[in-house]
């Protein structure tokens, strides 16, 4: 499997209002392979979202580099991003919201209408293209946000707690939907989540970030056949993975306490 994205010795430091420097990430290196779904889990404050923003080009690392394919630097238009909040513009219709990235990159939205309608059909929103965000449920809004992230056919899909605000049933429905869409689109995907079950169900590989400043403390290949059904959540294999990740998170908490003592 070829490498799609390479993170080299990524470090990130924030400066507080009183001038104190806080290291969030330190010398983190990671290869992301073409077409895989990589899950990133860890406790709050360990740098998961910071890492995703560095990959997206929203933040610059204090040290290190992000190399996208063939040694190129920077992700740019190759990435689609989806956050916990759908961030839909209330004065725009569903279709207009999906097409927004096309306007931002300076291309003609009319050339992407057919693709937008196709994506909406795939996520179960056929016929909703003229509705407004306030007419949709939270789950439907997240489906629109997913279509928006995919509209320009990104090679890389970045997901930051995309279903964290949804109820448990809707969240699991979105897992099944995302699994189908990612396989269909064939894009490399990075998923940041606090939900261990979500990471395991959706990912081909899970990385645990811990030991503040954040770095990789465990990496697990998920050998569960695809397509995955929700029944997989109740198998002994799945539960063994859950226990391994929980143990890794617990161990790196001890590491953090020791570093602060």
UniProtKB/TrEMBL annotation:
It comes from Ignisphaera aggregans. Gene3D superfamilies: P-loop containing nucleotide triphosphate hydrolases (3.40.50.300). InterPro entries: AAA+_ATPase, ABC_transporter-like_ATP-bd, ABC_transporter-like_CS, ABC_transporter_ATP-bind, P-loop_NTPase. This is ABC transporter ATP-binding protein. Pfam families: ABC_tran. Keywords: ATP-binding, Nucleotide-binding, Transport. Transmembrane segments: none annotated. SUPFAM superfamilies: P-loop containing nucleoside triphosphate hydrolases. One of its GO terms (molecular function) is ATP binding.
């Amino acid at each position: 499997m070829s490498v799609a994205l390479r993170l080299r010795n990524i470090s990130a430091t924030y400066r507080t209002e009183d001038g104190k420097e806080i290291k969030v990430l330190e010398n983190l290196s990671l290869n992301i392979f073409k077409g895989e779904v990589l899950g990133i889990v860890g406790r709050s404050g360990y740098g998961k979202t910071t890492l995703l923003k560095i990959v997206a080009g929203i933040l610059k690392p204090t040290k290190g580099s992000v190399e996208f394919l063939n040694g190129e630097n920077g992700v740019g238009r190759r990435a689609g991003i989806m956050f916990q909040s759908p961030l839909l513009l209330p004065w725009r219709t569903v279709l207009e919201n999906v097409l927004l990235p096309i306007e931002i990159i300076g291309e003609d939205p009319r050339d992407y209408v057919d693709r937008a309608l196709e994506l909406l059909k795939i996520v179960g929103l056929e016929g909703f293209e003229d509705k407004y965000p306030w007419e949709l449920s939270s789950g439907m809004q997240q489906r629109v946000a997913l279509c928006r992230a995919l509209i320009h056919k990104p090679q890389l899909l970045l997901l930051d707690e995309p279903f964290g605000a949804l109820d448990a049933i809707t969240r699991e429905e979105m897992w099944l939907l995302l699994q189908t869409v990612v396989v269909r689109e064939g894009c490399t995907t990075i998923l940041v989540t606090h939900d261990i079950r979500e990471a395991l169900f959706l990912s081909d590989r899970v990385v645990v970030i811990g030991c503040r400043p954040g770095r990789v403390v465990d990496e697990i290949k998920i050998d569960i056949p695809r397509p995955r059904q929700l029944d997989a959540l109740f198998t002994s294999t799945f539960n063994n993975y859950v226990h391994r990740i929980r143990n890794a998170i617990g161990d790196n908490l001890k590491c953090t306490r020791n570093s602060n003592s």
